[in-house]
Amino acid sequence: MNIFRLAGDMTHLLSIIVLLLKIYATKSCSGVSRKTQELYAIVFLARYLDLFTDFISVYNSFMKVVFIASSLAIVWCMRVHPMVRRSYDKELDTFRHYFLIAACFLLALVLHEKFTFQEVFWAFSIYLEAVAILPQLVLLQRSGNVDNLTGQYVFFLGAYRGFYILNWIYRYLTEPRFTRWIACVSGVVQTALYADFFYYYFISWKNNSKLKLPA
Amino acid sequence: DGQPETHDEL
């Protein structure tokens, strides 16, 4: 494992900790898209089907369990916890995420590394992760104001994707047979979705002002 | 040779 991948995994973990902290400390999930969180839970469940069949490292298995458990915990909070549930902005979170799930699954049926149950679900999870942030970005754009923790959550998620791209470049240069088109192309698409957000995040950071996204 | 390696990333 190289430093870029480790940095990517850590910023990913940090983003989830920030989100859990926000929900736990404020007992509120305002500004957070439940649809994005549900998509992430599906992403992790579909991707880590290999948890019991392919052992890579203790670190790898541990992180898989953490990602599955934390994503389910967030969805659980937003759906079941009485106070958190009340703060959910249903009217702002209108993205039709079922279409994303269907489209990604169809794409996975066509484009995969191998036509097996696990490989199709792995490809599906890669495609779905690439677009899972869309309901969150749309929600932020619709609400205009972004609170600090939600802004940091999206920032760390974007940083995680950026580090993964550096990781692939590093692996491509140092490993003789590193070619993973599905993951790399989807990863670049996913990172590009954050470009706009990053731009406004940087502006607000530079001016030391509250993050605001244009309508 | 088109054989998928194990997915070692998260």
Automatic annotation (TrEMBL), chain A:
One of its GO terms (biological process) is vesicle-mediated transport. Pfam families: ER_lumen_recept. The chain crosses the membrane at residues 58-77, 98-115, 121-141, 153-173, 179-202. Its main location: endoplasmic reticulum. Keywords: Endoplasmic reticulum, ER-Golgi transport, Membrane, Protein transport, Receptor, Transmembrane, Transmembrane helix, Transport. It comes from the Eukaryota. This is ER lumen protein-retaining receptor.
